[in-house]
Amino acid sequence: MKKFLAILASTLMAVSLIGCGSDTSAGEPAAEPAAEPATQEAAPAAETSGDSDLSTKKVGVCIYQFSDNFMTLFRTELENYLISLGFAKENITIQDGANDQATQTGQIETFIADGVDVLIVNPVNSSSAATITDKVVEAGIPLVYINREPDADEEKRWEDNKWNVTYVGCDARQSGTMQGEIIADLGLDAIDFNGNGKVDYIMIEGDPENVDAQYRTEFSVKALEDAGLEVNCLSDQVGNWDQTQGQQLCANALGQFGNDVEVVFCNNDAMALGAKQAIADAGRTVGTDIYLVGVDALTEVCEDVLSGAITGTVFNDHIAQSHSAADAAVNFLTGAGNEYYIGCDYVKVTKDNAQSILDSLG
Ligand code: GAL
Question: I want to staple 206 with a disulfide (CB 3.0 to 4.6 A). Which of 148, 156, 173, 241 is the partner?
């Protein structure tokens, strides 16, 4: 029975296989990401009252899934910062979309019916943004999207119609590039344990509903190639930002490709923590016979980078992003308005600066 379950599990796992190389069609996000920030122009605050007494303003926040550890850091910081700006705790309501768009759409409708003054939305499906925007704009409520960027056509609509809608996030191409650079900086001699002259890697991808997954995959490998390294993708699968799935996918790949796996790229730190466990279970040692990188700079991962248990990560600045999102909400409420795209920089994290990143996280 156990054996049957194991076979079933690995068959199910194979379904999530999206393949190596540039053809990521099965793992592509539903919508094309916005290639460039939509505009630097400020949106007029047509619908807002210009009343700046924040203590009476009601804020609705929708998070795609509470169990996501990066988004937990984000929402905690967002709530604390909103309170520090003068919002009352009882006027801030944060809902868990439970990774289900229908659930989240219902929550947005309830927020509209309750007459919230501003909405901050981390969509479950970024491809549902147009529907969400239409509902919220029709109700005359300003809207700040976070973390999962709507596509370029959608962002253009905000600008064309001069709606009070904006997106706050980082450009994931930068995080992918930084992951690749962390590995490339080690030099081929240090990476090429099997001596075939190539960087043999496995890729563990996040949920394709966030373009971060596609960009981090593409640009981490591109950075290796740009550094003049030849790459060999052994396995590329979707782990949905999840630690358990990351561990299982890494274990499977290590079982299949053994010592040929030289680098494990994970689109986020949760999956890197899972991969770290799989690497230890396989009797391999990060920094000695394999390398491992993630993104987010979770506290535990920064500690692992310091100890050498994880090669590196990239700081996905939830502090700057949550503050920008709250500031954008305030700008809509006071009538100041916002740009249609509000960006933020990632920071490369290696042994050299992991302690200072940890210190900045408090
Ligand atoms: C990414 C982050 C992931 C996950 C995802 C959710 O930016 O790196 O860990 O939280 O957002 O959409």
Answer: 241
CATH class of 173-315: alpha beta
Query: Residue 293 in contact with residue 301, Cβ under 8 Å?
Result: no
Domain residue spans of the chain:
2-170+318-345, 173-315
> What digits encode the pLDDT tens for the residues 26-71?
333 333 444 444 333 444 444 444 567 999 999 999 999 999 999 9
Ligand 1 mean position to 346 CA, how many Å? 13
Report pLDDT digits (tens) over 95-120: 999 999 999 999 999 999 999 999 99
Cα angle 101, 122, 116; round to 5: 90
Pocket lining: 125 vs ligand 1, CB cutoff 6 Å: no
174 CB within 6 A, ligand 1: no
Answer yes or no: same fold for 2-170+318-345 and 173-315.
yes
Hey, which residues does 145 pair with through a beta bridge?
A: 121, 167
pTM: 0.89
List the CATH code of the domain at 2-170+318-345: 3.40.50.2300
Beta-carbon contacts of 39 under 8 Å, excluding residues fewer than 6 positions away, are 159, 339, 340, 341
Q: Is the CB of 316 under 6 A from ligand 1?
A: yes
